[in-house]
Every structure is written in structure tokens, then in C-alpha cells.
Amino acid sequence: MQVCMENDQDNIINDITSGEYKYGFYTDIETEKIPKGLNEDVIRLISKKKGEPDWLLEFRLKSFRHWLTMKMPGWANLKIPEIDYQDIIYYAAPKQKPAPESIDDIDPELKKTFDRLGIPLEEQKRLSGVAVDAVMDSVSVKTTFRETLAELGIIFCSFSEAVREYPDLVKRYLGTVVPHTDNFFAALNSAVFSDGSFCYIPKGVRCPMELSTYFRINAANTGQFERTLLVADEESYVSYLEGCTAPMRDENQLHAAIVEIIAEKNAEVKYSTVQNWYPGDREGRGGIFNFVTKRGICRGDNSKISWTQVETGSAITWKYPSCILRGDNSIGEFYSVAVTNNHQQADTGTKMIHIGKNTRSTIVSKGISAGHGQNSYRGLVKVLKNASSSRNFSQCDSLLLGDKCGAHTFPYLEVDNQSAIVEHEATTSKIGEDQIFYCNQRGISTEDAIALIVNGYAREVINKLPMEFAVEAQKLLQISLEGSVG
Amino acid sequence: MLSIKNLEAGINGKMILKGISLEVKAGEIHAIMGPNGSGKSTLAAVLAGRDTVEIRGGSVTYMGNDLLQMAPEDRSKEGIFLGFQYPIEIPGVSMVNFMKTAVNEHRKHKGLPQLSASDFLKLMREKKEMVEIDSKLANRSVNEGFSGGEKKKNEIFQMAMLEPKLAILDETDSGLDIDALRIVANGVNRLRRPDNSSIVITHYQRLLDYIVPDVVHVLYDGRIVKTAGKELALELEEKGYDWIRKEVDNQN
Ligand SMILES: Nc1ncnc2c1ncn2[C@@H]1O[C@H](COP(=O)(O)OP(=O)(O)OP(=O)(O)O)[C@@H](O)[C@H]1O
Ligand SMILES: [Mg+2]
Predict the structure, then answer these.
(1) Which residues of B touch A440 (CB under 8 A)?
(2) B2-251: what CATH class?
């Protein structure tokens, strides 16, 4: 295993020849779009297109009305240009047969698109052991391995299908972790969300394969508002991964998603993200605004939720995957690598809310800034009164490449229990010219030297990713930093 | 192999090398001695291609090529190795990954296929034994937390891995215990072949008991002021640099 990883690392280093964004193509496919703008009629239209039950329409409208009373949050260390919410298309779907029965019913252009992204929709072509829900713009195109998983009682399907086929489950959990009133973007998402993934792991089942959702923005002038709801019932286990890409465009596009995770007693959920939305060009034109609310609740005792994220894309990232540790002895983890190069900005981190006794959380955040990139870690560790003997360990490191970029950390701490132990460590380092020269002197080019150092720096987090994706993530790190020095 | 002519170089506008000429033929070992601050490391840096040193004049030819035009990594791949006076720490990068990248870059340059993981580890083990370096060191990050002596030994280990044509060792003997000194010397001697050369920068003649130089130079205030056989090292050890200083002053 070890040996094979190392070989891959070599290949990666050799593979990298250009720093272009590789996923910037656009698929010319007939797309159904609704007119720009946002009002109750638009919401009714989305709901109708999806054939939703009344309760869901009510949820949307309630969210929309609440959203109207809210303002965009201004506390993040980000410069966000004015967003005209009436200038966005809230629903865009590649035209295809309503519910493709088999792979042959899927438009070949769509298949080709996902092939190009390295996400073949044919099950036999997939990495065995990974099931995918492929989402393009506002709809899910195909979910693989559904039947295989169904044999174990695992539900893995698009959100829309879940609403149709498992309305009770959806109704029971929707909005219980991220309420529609939670924040500006969460309220917006709750009003207009179009699709996403739904996953339910029944009691006592260890999901035998990686589940993953691949989000693709294709259409112009649209926003993507998807929702993921993941429920791990008692004694179950699942590892889940999401990936995202978008075409290169000069204008910004909005992506405001919600992820809710529920872990019942003794359940464990590993949620990994490799975020590679189009970051904009070297001058900072274009790119995705990635404003995402992700939260998990460890409801049952001894449950565990682990977030791992590798964030290389997006013009602006605003994202704080969090854990509410309600069950006694429950565990929350957050492992993050966030890269900002050129003019990218990221304000990301986590919240660990300790409610249950003897709860533990670990935060490892590795920021990498290059070019004019601005990278902020923002984290809250909150220990409530009854969370006795709870523990948190936080490690927030920043790595700077060059002197025009910035790194900032904003750790917040609220501890209401005397027996809690909270530790915080932070470091800032720079890739030194003498380190690069030392590598050069051994025959290693400056680009490869940076790759070596960055991979070494991020390894602790990358190692938390499922094997198949660790290599991919490492490659991404390198590509996204190319041309940042010299 | 290496021909330096009237080399002038400085750092931050300050002149440090004030016209150096030096000829190293294949198979030779040259020792460079000289008081602190005389420019020995600066000379080594110029040869390795450090761009913080500004070249003001002169030329350097290495195996028929204009060395000063070559990128540092190409110089390395063409066989120049610098054992750093102060080896650099690279946290998070394991020695294994570091060396594997380096060795494979060298192989690529020579048109050889990449080493398989197992062949590489075998090579590593072999060289580790040769330089008697603690196995555990090779599993750690590059030089991170190594003691002074361990860092120096690690330089020799890297040299053994890369098998250079021209090794420039900048005070690799400083801070070494007697055993380590012998190991370092053995490393250099093993590399000694009719087509390889070394430049050994040192303050101590005891190293030259193990590595017997063909020529000893004294670098003083940016100039080579004396060149002689190995007996010059003994004389320096005995008398210090004062008499050199006087000689130079008299000449001026
Ligand atoms: N970055 C720098 N800025 C200014 N002066 C420098 C710089 N680097 C080196 N020097 C100066 O250049 C001169 C030569 O330094 P160098 O390191 O080459 O000496 P050395 O002969 O190797 O000395 P030692 O025996 O102490 O290692 C010294 O006076 C030193 O202070
Ligand atoms: Mg020196």
C-alpha cells in the first residue's frame, strides 16, 4: 500500500506540466431554464417542475419569506462584490427524458461530460467501490449502484427522488440540523434548492462502498443550490465524498449549498470534499462564489462525524463545516486544506459545539496562500455547561508563498465547563528561498520543490481522504499553485 | 573539468570575490582553506547557482559548458553537488520522497527509467550503510531536528545517492566527531575516480589526513593568495593565517 502510494506521488509530480484549470469546458446541451429573478412565483415554479408535495412548497415559501428579512453577512474577512439576486437563474436543467430508466436513456453529451470529468456514469467503468450521484446544474443526472446498495437497505438517490419515494424520511430530517432561518445563504438555499443527494444508512449497516456526489455547474447565469441530507442510523458507517467543477467564465456564479448530517448512536460518518470550482483567472475575473452551510449532528452517544476538505477552487469561499456533539462521548473532526492563489479569497473553518459529556473534537486546518490570495481560518469551539470532561485540540497552520498574499486566523473559544480541556496551536511559515535552492541543488526544479513542500505540509489532511481521492487531491494542490513562485 | 577565470562576485552590492581563478582537472581533489568571511562559501554558492550572489565578471566553464548560464537544478543533474555548510531543514518532506524525487530527476536527465519503489529503497539502504547513517534519520523530514553532525552526515548520504562528478564540500567536517569524520572522508574517497573531482572547503588539516588533496588553496579576502601541495595545510595549522596576511600586505 505504502509503496503504491509513493509511486503515485511520482507520477503526479511528473504529470504536472501546465497550471490550466482542466475542467473549464462547457457542454453544449439543450438546457431548460426558467427566467431570471426570484419571487414566490419562481419558487412555486421550481416546486411544480419537481412535482413536489405541498409541505415542501410550504417549507420553501417559509424560507423565502424569512430570507427577505435577512441581510448578507458582513463579518467574514472577505471582499464580496454586490450580488444582484434578481439577476440569477434559479433553475436550469439539461433536457432529457424525465426519469432515465437505464444508462442508455441518458443523453450521450451528458455521459461525455462526466467522462471528461473522470466520473463515468456506467457502473462497469467506475472505480469499483464508489457509487456516484452526478448532478448537473439543477438536477441529478444519474445515481450509480443504487440497486446494489438497496440490497443492504441503503438509500442513495437524488434529493428529488427521495422526496418522491421516501417523503417521510425527508420530512423527518430536513432542516433539523441547518434550520431555514440559520443564515442568509441557508435561507436562500431552503427557498430555491433544486437537487442534491439523499442518503440513508439503516441500523447496523456498514456501507460497503464510498458514496459520492459530483456537482457540475454548466449553464451560464445560473446559480447552483443543492442540498445533501445524510442520515446514518444507529451502529452504521458511511464514507461520503463530494467533488465539484465548473466552466471558465468571466462572470461570477453563485453556489449556495446546504449539507446536513445526522449520526445516531454509535454511527460514524466521514464526509470528504474536494472542492475545485472554477477559481477565476489570474487577474481575478470570474469564478464561483461558494457560500455553503455544512453541519452535522452527533445525536446519539458514541457517534462520530469527520469532515475532511480540500478547497482549491472558487473565487470566494465562505464555509464552516461544523459538528454539534450532542451525544455523550461523541466525536467531531475537521481536517482542512484551503488554497488561495491569484485573487482567490477563503474564509473557512469550523464550529465544534460540545453539548454531551466527554465529547471530543479535533481541528486541523492548513491554509496555503499564494499570489494575492487571502486565506482566513475562522473557528469556534464552544463547550456547554453540561459537557464535562470534553476536549478539543486545534491546530491552525498557514503557509505563505510570496509576500503579496495573506493568512489570518480567528479562533473563538467559549468554555462553560471547568473540566474541559481546550488546546490551540498555530503556526505561520513561508516557503523559504533557501529551501527551494536546497532542492534545486539536488536536481529538483522550483515547481517540483514547491509541490514537495506543499504536499508534505498538507499530508496530514490529505491522508484522511479515501485512497482513491487522496492522489487526485494532491494533484489538484499542485495544479492550483502552479506559477505561484518565480 | 572546472575552469574558473577572474571570477568577481558580490552580495547586496558588496564585492566578495575579487578575481578568482582556479583550474580543477578530472580526478583531482582541491582543498580550499582561508579565514572566516574570506568568501569560501560564496564561491561554492556561485558554482551551485545561487542567484542571491551577483556575478560581476569573469567566467566559469564546467565540462566545456558555460556554467553561469545553467539553472541550479541542471548543474546538479550535470553532476555538481554542493555539501552545504548549513544544510536546510524542510519540514514535512520526508527524506525518502526528497531523495526519490532527486534521484529520479537525475535519471530522467540521463535518459534512464524511473527507479521502482523497491529498487529505490534498496539503493537507499545500500547508501545508508555506506555512510553509516542512522536508519531512522532517513525516515524523518529533510534535516528537521537533525543535530549539527547528523546534518553533515546527511549531506554525505545525499552525495552518495547522487554520485556527483564534482563534489563541493563546504566545511562538511565541522562539528563532526572523529568517527563521523572518518565516514565523511570515506564517502569522498569512495567517489574518487579518475573522472571525478572534489573541492573540499575546510578549516582543519585533520580532514586532509583522510582526504589527501592534490592541491591546497588559501582564499583570503576574496582572492586566492596561495596555492601549494598538501603540506600547505600543515603549515597553516601550525602558523595560522597571520603570515599569509603579512605576505599579502607586503605585496600591496
Ligand atoms: N547575504 C549577505 N549579505 C551581506 N553580506 C554577506 C551575505 N552573505 C555573505 N556575506 C559576506 O560575504 C563575506 C564572505 O562570506 P562567506 O560565507 O563566503 O565566507 P566563508 O569564507 O565561507 O566564511 P566561513 O569560514 O566563516 O564559513 C562575509 O564577509 C559575509 O559577511
Ligand atoms: Mg563558509
Answers:
(1) 49, 71-73, 76
(2) alpha beta
